[in-house]
Design brief:
Layout: H1 4-18, H2 25-41, H3 46-60, H4 63-66, H5 71-86, E1 102-108, H6 114-129, E2 133-137, H7 145-156, E3 160-161, H8 169-183, E4 187-191, H9 200-213, E5 217-223, H10 229-241, E6 245-249, H11 258-267, E7 271-275, E8 283-285, H12 288-295, H13 301-311, H14 314-325, H15 331-344, H16 347-352, H17 357-360, H18 370-381, H19 385-389, H20 396-405, H21 410-431, H22 438-443, H23 465-488
Parallel strand pairs: 1-4, 1-5, 2-3, 2-4, 5-6, 6-7
Antiparallel strand pairs: 7-8
Helix pairs in contact: 1-2, 2-3, 3-5, 5-12, 5-23, 6-7, 8-9, 10-11, 13-15, 14-21, 20-21
């Protein structure tokens, strides 16, 4: 997962401070030394690191901060604010044309995932902003580039404009724009040629396309795995064609974070989107404050809430909550929720978005096997409708029949029913206000391999200043989102 090593190092540094009631200048300097080393090891540009450390120290050495009642929380807040600024500050979206189609020119080096990103972005803007996209095959040099874009277009049911590989990219771009105006497409994505490295021919061609169609957005696709070198690439592109933003790809991989933490500072251009997987649906709007949350172990509840709002119907959710409360929750409900949760991402990725949970639960050691979910579904689907609606009616002979029908063992069927009953009891307790049931619920989740964790706070209710700050920050974000939604309506 992206930033994992950096995240662990930074969290360790701020937690040391968080445990102290009073903080001296020496404590602060020790913390910042660890922060500086963590950032350098994450391949963040040296000048960027130096500037970041200086800003945090200047703010934190303020006498009012060190003398305050909660200096640790104040310092964590400063680190969070400066990390957010380092990642670009405010989230910046696509700037749409006031008249005519919006033209988005995609640029980048070969292997960065540019063509796939064209498809991801088209799909994202169609879903989020209800745009009518047109994909333009402007890479006439790479073998099979046109075929790749056409395959993506078919998968998404999005039209692709192409004139083969014997027409110049400038002519293709100009004719594609006329075609979009004629057919009523409001967003035109021009896929341009990549190179193994930056060269004059590439830059001249991009400049010629820019002068021919005057794109509203020039998005640079950058491979997050390339570290701070990505910032140097972005700087060169920006000096030639004045990019409007960056799309970071492979941010779900084992990247150290140098690219994301260096680009905005070095180029002054925002990271607008991040590729979080190989699927065409796995693209996220990049929110600097939320990424800072994730890095500092504050989770990312806002993204989780937004994902859930897209997948879950409010009335259905309310009805489900009532069933949980009344203990009438059955296997049909269980199966429906499993399918919905799968759409939010992997179980581990969901848990990591919840503030502090990665510290309370050994998420990385859970060994949650996707096959367990498949087996669980097979067992439920082998039940009759009566058995799904009335789990208590499943006697031993029925269990043997279910095991045979789902190609599982009687032990696995018994285990699932036992876990389901535990989960139902815990959910009923939680919806009736008993949140201490959560630790039991985690031990009773389907899929095995997770065990029971007993008390998730390790038997002590320690004050976690990072979590306190995360809760306050999330409340502010929710209020801001509500105000924004109110203005839209």
């Amino acid at each position: 997962m992206a930033f994992e090593s950096l995240s662990d190092r930074l969290q360790g540094a701020v937690e040391k401070v968080g445990k102290k009631g009073k903080i001296s200048e020496g404590d602060l300097k020790e913390m910042m030394r660890e922060v500086r080393l963590a950032l350098l090891e994450a391949d963040v540009n040296f000048k960027v690191v130096k500037n970041f450390v200086r800003k945090v120290q200047e703010k934190a050495l303020n006498s009012e901060v060190l003398a305050s009642l909660s200096p640790a929380q104040q310092i964590i807040k400063i680190v969070d604010e400066e990390l957010t600024a380092l990642l670009g500050g405010e989230q910046v979206g696509i700037q749409y044309a006031k008249e005519g189609p919006t033209v988005i020119m995609m640029a980048g080096l070969q292997g960065a995932g540019k063509t796939t990103t064209v498809g991801k972005l088209a799909n994202h803007l169609r879903q989020e902003d209800h745009r009518r996209p047109l994909l333009v095959a402007g890479d006439v040099y790479r073998p099979a580039a046109i075929d790749q874009l056409e395959t993506i277009g078919k998968q998404l049911d999005v039209p692709v404009f192409q004139l083969g590989d014997q027409v110049s990219p400038v002519e293709i771009a100009k004719k594609a724009l006329l075609y979009a105006e004629e057919k009523g497409y409001d967003t035109v994505f021009i896929d341009t040629a990549g190179r193994l490295q930056i060269d004059q021919t590439l830059m001249e061609e991009l400049k010629n396309i820019q002068e021919a169609v005057h794109p509203d957005e020039i998005l640079l696709t950058i491979d997050a795995m390339t570290g701070q070198e990505a910032a140097n690439v972005a700087k060169t592109f920006n000096e030639t064609i004045d990019v409007t933003g960056v799309v970071l790809t492979k941010l779900d991989g084992d990247t150290r974070g140098g690219a994301a933490l260096s680009i905005a500072s070095i180029t002054g251009k925002p990271i607008k989107f991040a590729g979080m997987g190989e699927k065409l649906t796995e693209l996220e709007t990049f929110y600097p404050d939320r990424m800072s949350n994730r890095i500092l172990g504050m989770g990312d509840m806002m993204t989780l809430i937004e994902k859930a709002q897209k997948e879950f119907d409010e009335e259905e959710a309310a009805a489900m909550a009532e069933k949980m409360k009344a203990s009438t929750y059955d296997f049909n409900d269980f199966l429906k929720q499993m399918n919905q949760v799968n759409k939010l991402g992997s179980f581990e990725s969901i848990l990591k978005m919840i503030p502090g949970l990665n510290k309370m639960l050994p998420i990385d050691k859970m060994n949650i096997d996707p096959k367990d979910m498949v087996r669980t579904k097979a067992i439920i689907q082998s039940m009759t409708e009566e058995e799904r609606q009335n789990p208590d009616a499943i006697n031993q002979s029925r269990r043997r029949r279910i095991a045979k029908g789902s190609a599982t063992t009687l032990i696995q069927v018994n285990q699932l029913i036992k876990q389901f009953n535990q989960t139902r009891t815990m959910m009923s307790a939680m919806t009736n206000g008993d949140m201490s049931a959560l630790s039991g619920l985690m031990g009773g989740m389907p899929g095995g391999g997770m065990g029971g964790f007993g008390r998730m706070d390790g038997g002590r209710r320690k004050k976690n200043r990072v979590q306190e700050l995360a809760a306050k920050k999330m409340a502010r974000q929710l209020n801001k989102k509500r105000r924004h939604s109110g203005k839209k309506h």
